[in-house]
Each structure stands twice: as C-alpha cells, then as structure tokens.
Amino acid sequence: ISRDVQILRGKAIEHLTNAAARAFVEQQDALLAG
Questions:
Q1: pLDDT digits (tens, 9 = 90+) for 7-25
Q2: Which domain holds residue 17?
C-alpha cells in the first residue's frame, strides 16, 4: 500500500474514532441508565 493511502486510511480511522467517542459522550447518561 502506498504511503498516501496509509495516511488517508489513518485519518479516516481517526475521524471515525472521534465521531464514535463524541456520540458516546453525548448519549452517556442514557446508555448508562439502560
């Protein structure tokens, strides 16, 4: 895999991870309440 593809893949993974973390924090109380 070329270096450019690796960089883009890393950025995409970072973006998705941040989005998931943000969604969890926003819904944390509801999730923990069941």
A1: 999 999 999 999 999 999 9
A2: 1-34
